[in-house]
């Protein structure tokens, strides 16, 4: 696929994420693995795309936007990291180390577009009271376009300046520094897993966590096999908890243990 066509499709993907995140359908959302799948289709480099997508997915597991909170857009970071890796040939660790700050930049852009769209919301409200429904719909579409800028602007800037700039920088900076970036990029997924474990009832299910670790780290079982075993254990726990709830409802159990979130 010609690079110019790839660039257009990548920018369109960034714009589509706006609608996908807010429409309620969420075919890909801003999940890095889903975004990486589409980027793999565009770039043709499935291995690089999925490795980067999986890495950033691990980093984002413990991060969620509650209410009106602003969080880094890991979908944007995924697009930028894959673009950098496939166009410049840098390692996945270096690409993630470059793409992640771009995703962090969306924190500031998110605040800006929210302020701007507040005016759009009041504008729509005035038009609603005036029963100018077609104009109100137009302002709503305008607000979507404004919202999409926090995705499109960083991706567009990287496509225009990113690859040549990264090539120049990688030639100028010393090897020890790029090695440090790669190490840092490889360590960041551990932080995401740590954040996720902080919110999970780890003490209650520590034995299952240790089983999964041993199977993966020492017995070298592929991650899909570990995931399937985890799903089987989760189903067994679900069945046991369901039976326990039924017994409680029929008066067979006098006390109820704490739930999964009592830690």
Automatic annotation (TrEMBL):
Main location: membrane
Keyword entries, A-Z: Cell membrane, Membrane, Phosphotransferase system, Sugar transport, Transmembrane, Transmembrane helix, Transport
Residue intervals passing through the bilayer: 139-163, 175-197, 209-238
Annotated source species: Streptococcus vestibularis F0396
Subcellular location: Cell membrane
Protein known as: PTS system sorbose-specific iic component
PROSITE patterns: PTS_EIIC_TYPE_4
Pfam annotation, one family: EII-Sor
Domain of life assignment: Bacteria
Protein topology in the membrane: Multi-pass membrane protein
GO annotation, cellular component aspect: plasma membrane
Cited InterPro entries: GatZ_KbaZ_carbometab (IPR050303), PTS_IIC_man (IPR004700)
GO annotation, biological process: phosphoenolpyruvate-dependent sugar phosphotransferase system
């Amino acid at each position: 696929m010609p690079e110019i066509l790839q660039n257009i499709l990548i920018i369109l993907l960034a714009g589509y994420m706006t609608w996908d995140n807010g429409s309620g359908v969420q075919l890909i959302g801003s999940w890095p693995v889903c975004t990486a799948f589409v980027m793999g289709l565009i770039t043709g480099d499935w291995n690089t795309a999925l490795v980067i997508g999986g890495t950033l997915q691990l980093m984002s597991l413990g991060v969620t936007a509650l209410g009106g909170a602003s969080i880094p857009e890991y979908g944007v970071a995924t697009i930028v990291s894959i673009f950098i890796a496939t166009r410049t040939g840098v390692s996945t660790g270096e690409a993630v180390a470059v793409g992640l700050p771009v995703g962090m930049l969306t924190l500031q852009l998110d605040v800006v577009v929210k302020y701007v769209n507040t005016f759009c919301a009041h504008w729509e409200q005035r038009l609603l009271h005036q029963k100018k429904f077609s104009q109100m719909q137009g302002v709503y579409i305008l607000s979507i376009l404004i919202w999409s800028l926090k995705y499109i602007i960083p991706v567009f800037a990287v496509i225009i300046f990113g690859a040549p700039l990264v090539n120049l920088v990688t030639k100028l900076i010393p090897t020890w520094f790029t090695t440090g970036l790669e190490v840092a990029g490889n360590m960041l997924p551990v932080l995401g897993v740590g954040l996720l474990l902080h919110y999970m009832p780890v003490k209650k299910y520590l034995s299952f966590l240790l089983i999964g670790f041993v199977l993966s780290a020492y017995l070298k079982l592929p991650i899909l096999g570990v995931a399937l075993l985890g799903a089987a254990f989760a189903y067994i726990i679900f069945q046991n908890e369901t039976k326990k709830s039924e017994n409680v409802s029929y008066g067979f159990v006098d006390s109820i243990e704490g739930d999964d979130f009592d830690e």
